[in-house]
């Protein structure tokens, strides 16, 4: 029975593999094969496939006989081609044994170099290279690496042995040891090895080879690698491949060397051949940083022929792979070898620059360019960040959640009121709270950054900060905040009010003191790039869905609306009216309304709010001239607005003329056991119709006024938290009555739509009924996720991190839409809605609207529009275009 | 064009209608027609159909010409048959105009009697009857009734006129007025009428007739009728019919009379001819209660021929309708007329008795008998109730929600501790609380009844009380409870600790003092009847579903398990383990566990609980010998168990040896913003595996021990709150590991199953995955309803009553399953679950398991079992049998 092929040879100008075989050969193996076929000088070798790795694990960490045979056949072929033999006394073949999975996992798995050396072969190597010191140094390194990687001999045991020789010789550096010293080192290393492993160092190179292959396969499932795959969501791989490759040496002498180069600048994207190298050195020397590497220009001067060959290879590879290449090369005795090439990692800025340049160089088309940039990479371009040159010199004092990207620095304050007061005095502040609440909005708005000690990625602080584009580190558990004394401590370090601190919301880090920030610019390239994305997005065609795929911004204030528009939003997808109530004047009237004991009193208080609310809407309508604005009527439970401080309660009691105690009773009656599932959203609209009436009137009056100014106003009124169409009908009727009366009174009519959020599971399940009455649906996936999972996003901190850790959840469902469960409800909602209204407009306006995977899902689910925070609009534009291309 | 037929004649031994035409003729009209066709003496007349009523409303409260014509043709036919004429001077025809819908709505709509009288006809009536006083009295009554019903003339206006004549004549009673006096009354009435209506009383009988028909049709949509239909969930009717029928008079003299009779006793069901009548009286006199009616036996003595005829008719009608009949009769001048017959309303006891008797008399078959008893009627038979003879004499002091049926009386106490203390002293107590919490369990358990001032039908008090079968009036808002002073007041009335009070949980009423209760017995009839229901239920056949339809009880304690078994439960459908933690000893250890700061400490505390928990399970297993017991592992959030009183906190701090302040910090960290959506159920099982480990070990040890006693133990272990199969897998693995180790240790193996609750929407949506690993599903429709609607059952009191009132919701979804929304999830869960496990056992264990409509839904949805509180098991058995017959 044929078991298939498990080992693939490369060398002598041809290879059995190719670049497309990454799944089987791993990235490194596939590229080594591809380069060999391209005629690029690659030291010959062979790749043991990922299938063998899978089999190794299935087979209880052993190899079937046929794999052993296949490896040995390929080893023979390699020896024949190299005209050398593993372990040979005269002409020993040395090989490297390296890991290489289909997805790059740098540094996570094991490598063994210089394999094949033993007491005989080391002599052969010395003779052949004419460099005894080199040979014994290589043997020493091999024993140490093999001992460490394959047998787990502690590093310090070898270091101790080396140190003892250096002390005996009274020298400081390794390179001061000569061949004889190194022979002694080897001898001591062999003892160290034997003591630790309880058996002598294997002299048989085959034994060495199989042990090394074992170690590499074994490293696929080491803790480090498992964690790396979990963090980077790498799934579905069969395992790692093992590359057994003949060694070339950059430390053969002064005509040898080794280096790394990029075909373009990985940090700016500039089309400039960028690299570093060291003569007479091995790769590990470059990494160890003992010597400072040279720039490639030095190579050009010193070895113009080698440099020219390198440039030629670079061009060939970039042209072949049609992407920026990251290459490793070694020069042995003046002869150039390429040991690795891969598509180079790059910054967001470089990613965009390279993608745009490659299109202009006609190497790739626009679609390909769009697919080349990961949406998350754009995030870096849209926020201030800590000056990278400073970054190297400082250490964070604490780490929390990277709740809202960007960096900030300012003076620490502990209350929202202080933040506002200090801001008015011209100070930059960082607002530090255990957690924030809607009352803190004013302070959050003026703070440079927000830091909390509790709460998750969707805590109030995090959500609001992302919406505002304010950097935020949330849930930083190491902080102990004492609100009363106005201190914050980390370990023994205590910060007082007014002390400087800095935040990096992109990585969730907190720094002491004020740190220099840089303000990245939106380059012209990015604009051009996003225009291509828009073209693709706007030409999207799906069966049963209107053409295109829209992007809107969530914005509650004119300034945010403008920001969204500037970043390319095609309308406001969610304008939350509740945030508007948090300025002092409105809040006061709103609180009087909340505790009023009669409809008349409520109406009276609401009348005072109306003109102010009207102004809010006017500003947004003006900002969005010609673009639709989707306004959500009041959503949260009333108690979110109730005063909590003694002062505020006393003041309110005073205004309405009752005792503080009586007021407290009314306030208590607003408390709910599970406010998220309580009296909120349209439920308030039904029981207190006067609230929505006021809001609709404010919308109508603002729309009429702004339209009179010659501005095109397209209001959409969204009723939240609908669970049955029977809630929607009377609320729509009420709203239309008011709109009509304002239009009649003013003689001006404005086009409008009235839609609903689908955020209650029951709404999705009965969408066919609701669609009969609603002009559009917007999926509120935050609440939909809460209720579909039964997770309160305020409380999941106690178990969701553990769930993600244990892989019970792939990801926090508040960050990435749960496509299987919540997604099914979205799909049902769309299908059922369109079953009674074929062209029903559907959109998403939860936090997920800015998440690339979720955007892809929304496209597949047939949604017309996604909406996200203004600062994520460029990311969403790119992700949406990718979704269109992908599907 | 033919518009169809709208008017149906009956009289002269034949009728155009029949009993099956209720939808068209209303119940009364259809039965009048049927009786006419049966040869029973019915005064002739005609019925204007419900179609005409529908048309009347569609036609803006007017009649098309063809209906007017049809009515007048039938009137002529009636006049011809009666040889009388409406308004005739010599021989005037008098008619009654009565409503009659397809479903009986007693007293909700209008009636006009004696129609056709005017100044001429009254003379004719006087002459024909030879009784001038009778004629003028009839005219007086007619003017008053017409004025009141048709024109809305206030009752007191006529009363005043009558009183003035009585005062002028200086008499007290109406019957002291003679013909001349009544003529004066008529004259005054006509003035009253003219003053109020602004036009004279219509003398044209046709005008009278059409106005009366208008009034009856109009009364179909009066407020009273609307409300009645809403309360009784009467839907889908076209309208009322109008019956125009020639009048007969029971007040013609001493050979005349009128009465009501039942073919069997409506309160006991005994086969005994039961009725009351009055000689020389009209129906309204019987109702007014001025004279005491006679028993039928008196009629038998006084008018044996008439009585014999009545018995003959009664037998004929009962045989014809095959059900107990409620009849109205009038004797005019010794001649018997039947004015109405219908299936009589009856008590639950009578319903069962009659159904069983009719089967034994071979009038109906068992299926028909099963359909004859409304499941809700059984409720009366299963709880103590207030002695009906006492009921008439007392007035409730307050009304709340009928949260748990049955009556109770006892001395008022205000804390659970007091309840327990007083109980130990031999007192009967009523526990009065604003609301109860799990800590009150002990007190609730010993209380005769529970009374709360807040909370709804699914509040803690209500749910627990129903589970215990303890009467409960919840959410009684009129009560002001002062826990500190231990007083309760209603208006100005103040009750202190130790005062007696009584509750009627069936109707939600509160009484002052101790009231006599009667303990109803489960009659042999009921047992027999339910056995028939079981036979039907057990033989249920559905495609793709195992045969039969099981009933289980929810029970947490052996005593409840026994009660369930006694009432016919075929197993325990839900045994909640959390209630078991509320006895003092376990609670103490559990609290130590909750606040422990290490796994070791938690395990230590759990070890102390285990033997106690094992005993709980042993008791239940013994009680349910041979029947399955489904045990749910810990479900609620931990903070439900934390101590709240200062004393308890101090005590706990003492035990674990930390300061009260430090303990408070730990307790606070357990608080959640939305505990219903927080860290609970299997989420605790994942993060603190030691808790479920302890519970599973207790189940295993109890099962082994009891099985050793020769008892058949069938444990089912249910993991709550699963949202993804990835939660279920490790929890199942853990449980099986522990079961295996106990079985190995003891050498005894017990059959078991491990299943899950489906109560998170996501679980239903992804049931195909979960079914791969779970042995069974039990739908927890309480939580499923909470999350599908986004309603916290603790908080819905603020809007759900208003929603039901405004018909936004048909019913409180926590009482009756929302079949459209939540039901869709149940159906999806069953279908998806069975898509990967064809024979997956499914059941329901929420509060809905005892609701007849929901049981019908569960049957249709393909569930195998419903489970409900022990006290509702008989109701569920009946409802389940009806579901099988119906579908």
TrEMBL record, chains A, B:
<feature type="binding site">
    <location>
        <position position="759"/>
    </location>
    <ligand>
        <name>substrate</name>
    </ligand>
</feature>
<feature type="binding site">
    <location>
        <position position="780"/>
    </location>
    <ligand>
        <name>substrate</name>
    </ligand>
</feature>
<dbReference type="InterPro" id="IPR002192">
    <property type="entry name" value="PPDK_AMP/ATP-bd"/>
</dbReference>
<dbReference type="InterPro" id="IPR008279">
    <property type="entry name" value="PEP-util_enz_mobile_dom"/>
</dbReference>
<keyword id="KW-0670">Pyruvate</keyword>
<keyword id="KW-0460">Magnesium</keyword>
<dbReference type="InterPro" id="IPR010121">
    <property type="entry name" value="Pyruvate_phosphate_dikinase"/>
</dbReference>
<keyword id="KW-0808">Transferase</keyword>
<feature type="binding site">
    <location>
        <position position="759"/>
    </location>
    <ligand>
        <name>Mg(2+)</name>
    </ligand>
</feature>
<dbReference type="Pfam" id="PF02896">
    <property type="entry name" value="PEP-utilizers_C"/>
</dbReference>
<feature type="binding site">
    <location>
        <position position="576"/>
    </location>
    <ligand>
        <name>substrate</name>
    </ligand>
</feature>
<feature type="binding site">
    <location>
        <position position="783"/>
    </location>
    <ligand>
        <name>substrate</name>
    </ligand>
</feature>
<dbReference type="GO" id="GO:0005524">
    <property type="term" value="F:ATP binding"/>
</dbReference>
<dbReference type="InterPro" id="IPR013815">
    <property type="entry name" value="ATP_grasp_subdomain_1"/>
</dbReference>
<dbReference type="GO" id="GO:0016301">
    <property type="term" value="F:kinase activity"/>
</dbReference>
<keyword id="KW-0547">Nucleotide-binding</keyword>
<feature type="binding site">
    <location>
        <position position="632"/>
    </location>
    <ligand>
        <name>substrate</name>
    </ligand>
</feature>
<dbReference type="Pfam" id="PF00391">
    <property type="entry name" value="PEP-utilizers"/>
</dbReference>
<keyword id="KW-0479">Metal-binding</keyword>
<feature type="domain" description="PEP-utilising enzyme mobile">
    <location>
        <begin position="427"/>
        <end position="508"/>
    </location>
</feature>
<dbReference type="InterPro" id="IPR036637">
    <property type="entry name" value="Phosphohistidine_dom_sf"/>
</dbReference>
<dbReference type="InterPro" id="IPR023151">
    <property type="entry name" value="PEP_util_CS"/>
</dbReference>
<dbReference type="InterPro" id="IPR018274">
    <property type="entry name" value="PEP_util_AS"/>
</dbReference>
<keyword id="KW-0067">ATP-binding</keyword>
<dbReference type="InterPro" id="IPR000121">
    <property type="entry name" value="PEP_util_C"/>
</dbReference>
<feature type="binding site">
    <location>
        <position position="782"/>
    </location>
    <ligand>
        <name>substrate</name>
    </ligand>
</feature>
<feature type="binding site">
    <location>
        <position position="781"/>
    </location>
    <ligand>
        <name>substrate</name>
    </ligand>
</feature>
<comment type="similarity">
    <text>Belongs to the PEP-utilizing enzyme family.</text>
</comment>
<keyword id="KW-0418">Kinase</keyword>
<dbReference type="GO" id="GO:0046872">
    <property type="term" value="F:metal ion binding"/>
</dbReference>
<dbReference type="InterPro" id="IPR015813">
    <property type="entry name" value="Pyrv/PenolPyrv_kinase-like_dom"/>
</dbReference>
<feature type="active site" description="Tele-phosphohistidine intermediate">
    <location>
        <position position="460"/>
    </location>
</feature>
<dbReference type="GO" id="GO:0050242">
    <property type="term" value="F:pyruvate, phosphate dikinase activity"/>
</dbReference>
<comment type="function">
    <text>Catalyzes the reversible phosphorylation of pyruvate and phosphate.</text>
</comment>
<feature type="domain" description="PEP-utilising enzyme C-terminal">
    <location>
        <begin position="549"/>
        <end position="883"/>
    </location>
</feature>
<feature type="binding site">
    <location>
        <position position="783"/>
    </location>
    <ligand>
        <name>Mg(2+)</name>
    </ligand>
</feature>
<feature type="active site" description="Proton donor">
    <location>
        <position position="845"/>
    </location>
</feature>
<feature type="domain" description="Pyruvate phosphate dikinase AMP/ATP-binding">
    <location>
        <begin position="23"/>
        <end position="298"/>
    </location>
</feature>
<protein>
    <recommendedName>
        <fullName>Pyruvate, phosphate dikinase</fullName>
        <ecNumber>2.7.9.1</ecNumber>
    </recommendedName>
</protein>
<dbReference type="Pfam" id="PF01326">
    <property type="entry name" value="PPDK_N"/>
</dbReference>
<feature type="domain" description="Pyruvate phosphate dikinase AMP/ATP-binding">
    <location>
        <begin position="308"/>
        <end position="361"/>
    </location>
</feature>
<dbReference type="InterPro" id="IPR040442">
    <property type="entry name" value="Pyrv_kinase-like_dom_sf"/>
</dbReference>
């Amino acid at each position: 029975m044929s078991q298939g092929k498990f080992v693939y040879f490369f060398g002598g100008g041809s290879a059995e593999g190719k670049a497309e075989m990454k799944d089987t050969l791993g990235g490194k193996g596939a590229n080594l094969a591809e380069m060999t076929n391209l005629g690029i000088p690659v030291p010959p070798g062979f790749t043991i496939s990922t299938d063998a790795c899978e089999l190794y694990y299935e087979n209880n960490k052993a190899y079937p006989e046929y794999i052993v045979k296949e490896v040995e056949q390929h080893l023979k072929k390699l020896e024949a081609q190299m005209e050398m033999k593993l372990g040979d006394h005269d002409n020993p073949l040395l090989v490297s044994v390296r890991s290489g999975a289909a997805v790059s996992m740098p540094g996570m798995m094991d490598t063994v170099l210089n394999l094949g050396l033993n007491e005989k072969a080391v002599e052969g190597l010395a003779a052949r290279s004419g460099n005894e010191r080199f040979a014994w140094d290589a043997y020493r390194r091999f024993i140490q690496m093999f001992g460490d990687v394959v047998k787990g001999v502690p590093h310090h045991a070898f270091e101790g042995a080396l140190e003892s020789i250096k002390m005996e010789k009274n020298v400081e550096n390794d390179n001061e040891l000569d061949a004889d010293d190194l022979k002694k080192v080897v001898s001591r290393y062999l003892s160290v090895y034997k003591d630790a492993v309880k058996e002598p160092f294997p002299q048989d190179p085959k034994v060495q080879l199989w042990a090394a292959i074992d170690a590499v396969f074994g490293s696929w499932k080491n803790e480090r690698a498992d964690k790396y795959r979990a963090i980077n969501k790498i799934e579905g791989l069969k395992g790692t491949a093992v590359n057994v490759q003949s060694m070339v040496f950059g430390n053969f002498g002064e005509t040898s060397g080794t280096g790394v180069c990029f075909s373009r600048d990985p940090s700016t994207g500039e089309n400039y051949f960028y690299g570093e190298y060291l003569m007479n050195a091995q790769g590990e020397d470059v990494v160890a940083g003992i010597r400072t590497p040279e720039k490639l220009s030095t190579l050009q001067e010193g070895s113009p022929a080698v440099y020219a060959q390198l440039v030629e290879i670079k061009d060939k590879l970039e042209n072949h792979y049609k992407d920026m290449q990251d290459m490793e090369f070694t020069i042995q005795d003046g002869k150039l070898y390429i040991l690795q090439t891969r598509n180079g990692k790059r910054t967001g800025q470089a990613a965009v620059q390279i993608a745009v340049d490659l299109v202009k160089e006609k190497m790739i088309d626009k679609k390909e360019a769009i697919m080349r940039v990961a949406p998350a990479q754009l995030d870096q371009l849209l926020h201030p960040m800590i000056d990278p040159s400073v970054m190297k010199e400082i250490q964070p004092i604490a780490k929390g959640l990277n709740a809202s990207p960007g960096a900030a620095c300012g003076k620490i304050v502990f209350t929202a009121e202080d933040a506002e007061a200090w801001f008015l005095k011209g100070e930059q502040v960082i607002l530090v709270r255990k957690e924030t609440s809607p009352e803190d909005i004013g302070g959050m708005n003026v703070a440079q950054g927000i830091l909390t000690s509790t709460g998750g990625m969707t805590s109030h602080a995090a959500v609001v900060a992302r919406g505002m584009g304010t950097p935020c580190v949330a849930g930083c558990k190491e902080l102990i905040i004492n609100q009363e004394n106005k201190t914050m401590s980390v370990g023994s370090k205590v910060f007082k009010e007014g002390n400087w601190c800095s935040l990096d919301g992109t990585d969730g880090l907190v720094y002491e003191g004020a740190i220099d920030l840089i303000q990245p610019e939106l380059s012209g390239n990015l604009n051009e790039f996003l225009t291509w994305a828009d073209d693709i997005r706007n030409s999207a065609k799906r069966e049963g869905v209107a053409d295109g795929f829209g992007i809107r911004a969530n914005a509650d204030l004119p300034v945010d609306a403008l920001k969204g528009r500037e970043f390319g939003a095609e309308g406001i997808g969610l304008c939350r009216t509740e945030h508007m109530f948090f300025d002092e004047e409105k809040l006061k009237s709103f609180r009087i309304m909340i505790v009023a004991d009669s409809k008349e009193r409520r109406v009276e208080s609401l009348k005072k709010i109306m003109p102010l609310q009207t102004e809010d809407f006017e500003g947004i309508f003006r900002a969005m001239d010609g673009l639709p604005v989707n306004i959500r009527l009041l959503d949260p439970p009333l108690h979110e607005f109730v005063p909590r401080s003694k002062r505020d309660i006393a003041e309110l009691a005073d205004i309405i003329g009752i005792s503080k105690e009586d007021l407290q009773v009314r306030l208590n009656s607003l408390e709910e056991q599970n406010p998220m599932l309580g009296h909120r959203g349209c439920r308030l609209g039904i029981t207190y119709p006067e609230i929505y009436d006021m809001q609709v009137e404010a919308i109508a009056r603002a729309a009429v006024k702004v339209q009179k100014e010659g501005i095109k106003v397209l209001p959409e009124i969204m009723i939240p938290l609908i669970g049955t169409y029977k809630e929607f009908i009377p609320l729509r009727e009420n709203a239309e009555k008011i709109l009509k009366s304002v239009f009649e009174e003013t003689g001006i009519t404005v086009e409008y739509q009235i839609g609903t959020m689908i955020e209650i599971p029951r709404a999705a399940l009965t969408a066919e009924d609701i669609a009969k009455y609603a002009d559009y649906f917007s999926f509120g996936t935050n609440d939909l996720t809460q209720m579909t999972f039964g997770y309160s996003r305020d409380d999941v901190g106690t178990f969701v991190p553990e769930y993600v850790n244990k892989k019970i959840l792939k990801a926090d469902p508040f960050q990435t839409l749960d496509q299987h469960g919540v997604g099914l409800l979205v799909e049902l909602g769309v299908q059922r809605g369109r079953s009674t209204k074929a062209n029903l407009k559907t959109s998403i306006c939860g936090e997920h609207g800015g998440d690339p995977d979720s955007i892809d899902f929304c496209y597949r689910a047939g949604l017309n529009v996604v909406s996200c925070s203004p600062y994520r609009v460029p990311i969403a534009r790119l992700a949406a275009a990718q979704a269109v291309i992908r599907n």
